[in-house]
Input
Amino acid sequence: MRYPAIFLSLAVPVLAQVPAAELFNRQDLDGWRSPKGTWSVVERVLLDPANPKAFIAKPGKGLMLNSAGERTVNVLTEREFGDCKLHAEFCVSKGSNSGIYLMGRYEVQIFDSFGKEKVTFSDCGGIYERAVGDKGAGGRAPDVNASKAPGEWQVFEITFRAPRFDASGHKIANAKFIEVKLNDQVVQNGIEAEGPTRAATFNDEKPKGALMLQGDHGPVAFRNLRIEEVTLP
Output
C-alpha cells in the first residue's frame, strides 16, 4: 500500500506541518519507552486455529506484537506530540481489546466488534468514556461499525487537535478528534474530549504528550505507524 505525502484532507485547515515520522522502524522497539513487557517484533501473526483468541507469531521483522496469547504493559513513544495526523494499522485476535491513546490520555478504542449490529463507545472506533469518581461519563460510539473480522488488518486515520491553554496554563479548549476514519469510513467527526479517558497513563492535561498503545487487554499487533505533526486552528 502506498501512502500520500500529506494525509490531511482538504476539508481540514492546516496552518503548518512537519514531515511524517515513522513511530516504528520495523526492526526493533527503539523509540518506545521502557518498560516494554513482552512487546516484541515479529514478521507475521495468524489466528491460532485451535484458539482464535490467540495469535501464532512468525519470527522476523515488520510488526509490533504485545503478546501471542496473553496481556502485558502499555507502551508509550519517547517523543511527544500535540496536534497530529496519525496513520495506524492494527490486527486483533477474536474478542481482543486494545486502544490508541493520543497524548497518552485520549483513547480511540480498538476492539473485536466484527458483525455487531449495535455499537457503543467501547467498540472499535469509539471514543472511550472518562472516569468521574467511580463512574463513567461521556464516551461516544462510532457512527458506523466499520470493523473487519479478527485476524484481518485494519486501518485508523486520526486527525487530532491537542487541548489549548492560556499563558497562565489554564485550559481554554478541550482536546478534539477532528476526524477518525476506520477502514476508510468516518466513525468520528468533530468530537471533543473533556478530559483523559479511562486507563489513561496521565490524568492531567498538557499541550503535548506521548502516544500510547494499550497492551494489557489482549493480543494486538501494529504496523505502519506514521504521525504528522500539524498545527490546527
Observations:
- Residues 1-10 have pLDDT under 50 and may be disordered.
- Residues 21-231 form a domain with the Jelly Rolls fold (CATH 2.60.120.560).
- The two ends are 31 Å apart (CA to CA).
- The chain has one domain: 21-231.
